[in-house]
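2024-03-11 09:14:02 DEBUG pipeline.ingest accepted 1 chain
2024-03-11 09:14:02 DEBUG pipeline.ingest length=494
2024-03-11 09:14:03 DEBUG pipeline.predict start
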Amino acid sequence: MRLAVVAFGAVLPLLTGAFQTHGEDTASGSLIKPTTDFTEPEPGEDKPGGGATSRGSTATPNAFSLSSGNMDFKRELEFKVGNGIFRKNWISAPSSTDASDGLGPLFNSRACQNCHLKDGRGHPQLSADVADDSGSMLIRLSVPPATAEEKENLASHRANTIPDPVYGGQLQDRSIQGIPAEAKLKIAYEEREVKLADDETVSLRAPSYTLTDPGYGPMSSGIMISPRVAPPMIGLGLLEAIPEDQILAHAAEAKDGVSGKPNRVWSREHDKAMLGRFGWKAGIPTIAQQTAEAASGDIGLSTTMIPHGAGDCTEKETACIEAPNGNSAKYQNVELGDELFKLVTFYAQNLAVPARRDPDAPQVLKGKEIFYGIGCASCHRPKFVTGDVPGQPHLSHQLIWPYTDLLLHDMGEGLADGRPEGEATGSEWRTPPLWGIGLTETVSGHTLFLHDGRARNLTEAILWHGGEAEGARDKFADLPKADRDALLAFVNSL
């Protein structure tokens, strides 16, 4: 099986009343209107998470692991307990500690933290000669719909994809003792040179993927695969708090061939189709659902939202289905009970965005103007104002700077995985947030970008852009080196 592809404070008190009246749209609209003045930073730009911006140092590997800067003491304690659950290594059932067992039987990682090391960006295998045990790259699986019921589930948004009948919706490359793992992934790269202005040459590496050693028989003939590295965890609660109308307002716009579209996906919590916000193709509507699906698919843990003790195992993986699980009557007859689930979800909602570095530096301001001028801001929308978050006032009514529109865009054949997900086609991806991107090496120890980590630096990541982003990419490639360096300095300051 191969796939080859090329200083607003803790809250905005003067605006809160306006947001609760007829003037809400006007108030927020004036705040998020794109700037035309690049001579100095905009008010609040130094704190991309508003009052929730991290108060800690941006110079350490723990820069992504700090809590919302405006959180009260009680919630800070909940955050720390949630962090403990996030870092917890699970073991197979049965064990003497039923609050810690339930791993697998098939899994990719024993802990959330192992995929999102230091809450940062994952990576593919770093070397063909060194086994990657991080679990930070996953393989999504699906097949085309074959029945009227499957087609109806896709059309009604009750399903984003149709899982493979044998291997399910995600490849698990690890397993508990006595249970075969599903398969292994091999990656090969082909180098392709790209010419830039000033006679500079950049080499892009195009990956191809091979699934080997299938543990449960041949893969389906029509199987579709999509490699995904774990994205950074910062600012998720703020993204969840953006009012839907602010996001959809950008979907209604179309300029210079750029027109984002929303992904409508099924909410397990609310039992209806909702706007997708999370995941590389915006396939998940809420952080709670993202947590439950990761617990099930990545670690094999059941929750009351997804109560399957065998995780992503299918009926044809009989040894997996018949293995003991950790479902416990003490914890709602699941492995990750509601109390622990809520705490780890709260942790994910409140990992703070670090403060900007040098937003007033002349090169950074020049790069910002170029970023806007060549069209990057058409998809990487700079700012939003969050709405009201019940129970979490520290996330409410914040002016934030995530540099994303949370919408789907056609990125061209070079980045296509050929695998639809909800309303996303095989070449469409959600615009990823850029906040914190310049701290990737500090936190994660590498500079590998895009959904599968193929880009070895930001220049390569930009040059992989195609489709709707082709115009911006070509303008970047045509810039003099000094201007390219300025744009990169701006992005690295985010």
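2024-03-11 09:14:41 DEBUG pipeline.report Residues 73-87 form the longest helix (15 residues).
2024-03-11 09:14:41 DEBUG pipeline.predict end
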